[in-house]
UniProtKB/TrEMBL annotation:
<dbReference type="InterPro" id="IPR036390">
    <property type="entry name" value="WH_DNA-bd_sf"/>
</dbReference>
<dbReference type="InterPro" id="IPR036388">
    <property type="entry name" value="WH-like_DNA-bd_sf"/>
</dbReference>
<dbReference type="InterPro" id="IPR011991">
    <property type="entry name" value="ArsR-like_HTH"/>
</dbReference>
<protein>
    <submittedName>
        <fullName>ArsR/SmtB family transcription factor</fullName>
    </submittedName>
</protein>
<feature type="domain" description="HTH arsR-type">
    <location>
        <begin position="1"/>
        <end position="93"/>
    </location>
</feature>
<keyword id="KW-0804">Transcription</keyword>
<dbReference type="Pfam" id="PF01022">
    <property type="entry name" value="HTH_5"/>
</dbReference>
<keyword id="KW-0805">Transcription regulation</keyword>
<keyword id="KW-0238">DNA-binding</keyword>
<dbReference type="InterPro" id="IPR001845">
    <property type="entry name" value="HTH_ArsR_DNA-bd_dom"/>
</dbReference>
<dbReference type="InterPro" id="IPR051081">
    <property type="entry name" value="HTH_MetalResp_TranReg"/>
</dbReference>
Amino acid sequence: MAASSAKHDVFQAIADPTRRQVLELLVDREMPVTAISGHFPMSRTAVSKHLRILADAGLVKERKVGRETRYRLEPEPLQALQHWLDYYSRFWQNKLTALQRYVESDENS
């Protein structure tokens, strides 16, 4: 998932609803912290802390443009998460299919 040197993993990063909203804001465009902060009822410092956690997990990258720091989404860790979730989706689908077969075969007996 995330690099082994990361302080936070993807699961920790996306566990918080504010951080998930930040990721949604960054889907289509790069944004400065001041613009991101305008979407939340919290201080810029608090938003910066959320951005730091997302950066630690590899979900956002930052770059300096003059005095401004801009953030953009890095979707690769989310793709790794999706692969992990796909495995468990197939696992549960197989279990439910087996249960359905069992129930249907028991009804026909």
